[in-house]
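User: We ran a pulldown and think these components assemble together. Before we commit to crystallization trials, I'd like a predicted model of the whole complex to look at. Sequences follow.
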Amino acid sequence: MLHLSNVVKRYSSIVAVDDLSFEASPGEIFGFLGPNGAGKTTTISMIAGLLTPDSGSIKLNGGAGPDQPHARRDVGVAPQSLAIYEELTGSENLTFFGKLAGLRGSTLRQRVAWSLDFVALNDRRADRVKTYSGGMKRRLNLAVALVHDPPLLLLDEPTVGVDPQSRNAMFERILELKTCGKTVIYTTHYMEEAQRLCDRVGIIDHGKFLAMDTVDNLIEQHGGKSVVTATRADGEVRIESTDPLDECIKLQQAGGIVSLRVDRPDLERVFLKLTGRALRD
Amino acid sequence: MGREVLALAGKDMRLLLRDKGGAFVTFIVPFAYCVFFGVILATQIGRTQEMRIVVVDEDQTPRSAEFADRLARAEAFAVTHAARADAIDAVRRGNSVAYVVLTKGFGERLSQARLHDRPRIEVGVDPARKVEAAMIEGMLTKYAIESRAESLVVGNTDREIRERPLRDWKPIEFVLAKVVGGQESPKSGFHVSFPLGIIWGVLGCCSSFGSSLVIERTRGTLSRLRMAPIGRTSILAGKALACFISTFSLAVALFVVAWLFFGVVPNAIGHLAISLVLVAVAFVGIMMFISILGKTERSVSGLGWGVLLAMAMLGGGMVPRMFMPAWMQSLSNISPVKWAILSMEGAVWRDFSTSEMLLPWGVLLGVGIVFFAIGAKGFSWQTEGS
Ligand SMILES: Nc1ncnc2c1ncn2[C@@H]1O[C@H](COP(=O)(O)OP(=O)(O)OP(=O)(O)O)[C@@H](O)[C@H]1O
Ligand SMILES: [Mg+2]
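Assistant: Here's a predicted model for the assembly, 667 residues in total across the polymer chains.
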């Protein structure tokens, strides 16, 4: 479905994407994680045909590059920076972009209704986008990616500023899309999102992959041990262990425990371990 | 390519009309200009409307001189004297409406009583100026009757007067010479002000569509369009189509108002239609050119208006060319606005033939193509941050 090989993109002195290769197949949600400035958006822009790689190749469905207009018919993009017409209503935006993708008549109407439903904006469909809240705009931005029912979805931080209710509804529907055989490239800074949605995750920094695997494998390889924290009257005890249950039982037997907490290794820990704890500029 | 271009243009038209205030101003401001300026011009044109004629006295007798004097005293005429060649030239260049030659023997025939040996006057006038030609003929007839009255009344011995009916008799014989190239003068101030007002409306459309391309870039919707399965040509064609439709419909709407309410009846409606299409084409090209003058909405709008105002100033869009000194009139040839106005005036009151229209039409088409090509080539597709 999507095939990148040895893709490089430079901005004068900055190498934004450095020899990146990966593939994503139908029915797969590929998570794209990395600190600010890691090169995620740059990569997505290249896949969407907005930027041309300095070297390397990108192949979409059927082997055509994103520079070919007909190949872009198969791609839906929710860009990180909102790109919708503020003076048009939600459904006008969707109808317009649907038309550009070649939809018309009843198919177009159905797809517009479906996309509005997907992002739960049906009751605001006839309002101008400039009257939407930030999260609503973000949701409409996602709906535009979906309106022409593309097999490949590039979602660049689609849930920023979206409330937990809508977000959870969106996750369920994205998982539905996956079972329909769509390929999703999903960028986010919320680790629990990636953990919940993604089949595989690539962790990128300075334009390079630091690791790429299933979530479970990443945690197993880079997550380290579980941490058991026990609070007693005289203070706190932290114990690292591969068998936290066993540790808990031992602590319980020793007595005097006020509370017990087990921190299992998770994606966040993997991420921080791989990319370091230093703040990014 | 067709459908997506229509969808793009439809989106732009929707955006334009959504801004009700903006759409209103786009129409109302040029309209106000048309009326305001038309009223002012009416007084100017009324003043110049006494007919300028050149008298060529080839008879050089006291009777012919007296006749010429009579013309000079008439309120309807502003009379100058010249030799025949200069007189013809003056009419050809449009400086005078007509020339009037008092031929050899004019004085003698005027004073004798023979009815059918009439004095001969040659009138040279543009064939298009039928009204003026008829008026001049009428006036000359009137003066000739006055001059001949005494000689005709005093003991007419001519037998012809009894044998022939007098119905078609004229006191003088007219020879009408056609002088091609003589320019019509506008029939009213509105005939001048409406084409000018239309230009201002067209410039407004041109500027706002030029900015709208930049707005698409700064707001990120341009990248959305680029990610859609359409080519760049379609994106620009959609913008051009929307600009064309707005410009053309604005011009048509203003002309309909001019026609219905201000008596500006075009001489050649077919010519006018072609002119309006080509004016729109030219300014769509200029719109595309303007869009590359800056990176931000502000700079494009500022620099764009600068360019448009310069074009308008030079081309007679601010002060009509008829009020410009000769050197400035020839300088105005470099401004597309001049050709736009000329193409409209040619169809409205200058009464251009099709072949005379070809020059302004050709220039407008060329301007459209060249400016569009420059703009499309220089257009920056890169959006910030994506
Ligand atoms: N238009 C541009 N001109 C110059 N440098 C750019 C441009 N766009 C991005 N960069 C640089 O390229 C690098 C990668 O940026 P990119 O936007 O791909 O990061 P990202 O992973 O999407 O970050 P974030 O999580 O903040 O969205 C950064 O160093 C950035 O400064
Ligand atoms: Mg980004």
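Chain B touches chain A through 25 residues (CB under 8 Å). That may be worth checking against your pulldown data before setting up trials.

User: Thanks, that helps.
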